[in-house]
Amino acid sequence: MEQLFKELKHHFAVMELTIKHPDLAFLQVPREQLVSLLTHLRDIKGYTHLVMVTCIDYLEENTFLLTYLLHNYAAKTDLGVQVPLNRAEPVMESIHHLWEQGRVYQRELYEMFGIDFPGSPDVHEPMILEGWQGPPPMRRDFDTKAFSEATYSHRPRDHKEPEEYMKQQLYPED
Amino acid sequence: MESLYPPIVNGKAVYDLNSQKYLRVWQGPQHPGVTGNMSLELDICGDQVIKCNTHVGYLHRGFEKLMERRRYINCFPIVCRICVPEPDTNEYLFAAAMEDLMGLEIPEKALWLRTLDLELSRLASFLMHLGGQSGAFGMGTVAQWTIAYRDYVLDLFEELSGARIYHMYMTPGGVRGDLPDGWIAHARKVLDGAAKLLDEIRHVMLNNVLFKQRAVGLGVITLDMVDRYGIVGPNARCTGLKRDVRKDQPYLVYDQLNFDVETETAGDAYSRTLIRWRETHQSISLCHQILDKMPKTGAVHVTLPNVLHLKVPAGQTYVRAESTRGEYGYFMVSDGSEYPRKLTVRGPSYTHAMALLEDLLVGVNIADVAGLMVSLHTYPPEIER
Amino acid sequence: MNDNEIKNPDLSETPEVETKPQTPAYTEWRKDAKTLYNNGLPEEEKDWFCDARPQKARKSVQVIEDFLNWARSQSLWILAFGTGCGAIELRPLVTSRYDISRLGMQPRPTPRQANLIMIGGYVSIKTLKRIVRSYEQMQGPKFVVAVCSCAINGGMYWDSYNTVKRIDEYIPVDVYVTGCMPRPEAVLAGFNKLKELIRAGKAEGQNLYAEKFDWYKENQKQVIKDWNMPDYNW
Question: Has this prediction a pTM greater than 0.90?
Fold first, then answer.
């Protein structure tokens, strides 16, 4: 993996290589070079399989860390390419022309995080939620428990102590 | 004479839905012809589908958000419910991701028990799928046989772990308990019965002229589509590629077991069913091998210190396993606290049921839509988690 | 102690429902001012849907009712709609090991031919819309069995933003079956309990729905934000 990193450093501004295993590594790349890096990895280095596109929300650092996981079937290695995005205006270039399933991942990311991928087919169509009027739910500042208590009514609980209750049920004479 | 089918302009069919020639039909969530709660919005012309939009989200519970709110050991009961018909892969992957981040080594016997659990779960899932495949073409007999037989496998699980469907058996650190007495003999009986059932299925379904007529040539996947769409599992193996996570990146004890990767070259629904039939036999033989080679004694789990306040060291990792549908992966990010930072589940049905299905369904008769969809073996709960 | 049944919501604990209109005579239902408006539908489709409200089932002489209830309990056709996790335990019920066909039940693909809907587990908002639609399309007398603990109080998704916590605020439920998953024997016990209720004349979910229709509809519309179907989908 270090060999690959050295070769990529000639052309792209990749940084922060973390090697987790001999066959799993993560690196970061600035936003502008992502599509060309992915094309380079797919066509020349043999990372032909896009495993997933996901995002980690770092609220405290005000960034979204988009992660593209690629897999090389010939060398049997995984490479995670991570792109920090500004959380205030999350817009990213689309990769749907490289892999068809990219458009599905991008649609989900738009709905769950609010990251826009202009040009991706149907990216603004809601895929998972219907009639959703709140903020993108996977963001760190969305409190799901508060939302659930405000929107849905919960069944009132009985507040019985389990031990007391079972003693009464099993041994009513005592 | 006007052509029956709409003209193609710029690669897209141009048609007017109000012109009474084309119809928009929903093969919706409440439909016996979809594999679970997913819907297909089909535009049809006569009998053929000209466009398909898939709709998912009927089973969305917000797992990834829920898991950020729960401690690691509290996430563990939730994780199996991500994929409803085959929950063990999820349990194993969650445990493996945690152990990977913590650098934990689990005992030898636990590895074998985990492999046994995974292979039995593959067997149960394949049995259900074979039934569903024949039921989608209208032949309900095989469905009745396999779902009834799957109950015997679920009985085995119940003796082993206490529950039929959601076992919660593979905890981080090993497995929850050892095999009960007499389980091995019971398991061998069930496996032998399954092998006999599979022979009957071949006789009734795979050699059946009706099944062949309908399934051959349906939903052909070509070699160049595999990497373009990210197809994994038997759907990729039906094009001739020998890709199996258990052979390429062996995990647990798969490098000590003896099996071949099944492939076919035709790429249609019939070859996929053949591959899955053979893989069911493969699961049975793997289970027998595991029962033969498993160490008889040994610890089955490592006690985690202070499990309720377990802190996993910071880092990120990706672990994968081969489920019945293909490569299943968990991407876990931890920041050193008691709660997971991010856990993304990559289910194989994500690409199969959405990107691939929409392109494969163009030109298919309405009657075959169900058959094609079931032949891709998609389980909707793992698409929208 | 029988854990399989929780009583229907008491009328005393519901919000005030305005005095419902007298259900108009059959020939005049379209002209009644209190009929439903088909909210959310485009103009050209408003004519296609009937504007009547659901009506309570009319009961005749007790002897005939007993006979009809007995007959209904012996022939419940279940709608094949796997709404959540519970779907995975619906399939083994149909096979020969647990065989619901000896109880007179068979799975039907369309709601028009079914009179029992089994809510399997958690219900997300998107599925709730379809459940409401399917439930209203079923012919009466119809019954609802809710299995798994997620239908009772939200279960392990109690803090999820997309699942409904109490299904009986949206459709009336007759029998609950606890478990996660309940064994098929437990589901069969739930069906038997439902049959007892039907024979005793107490499975009144459909009539409850017709009486408190406005309350149910208001609850549904509060949660289902994009209401693009008629108010009463029958």
Answer: no
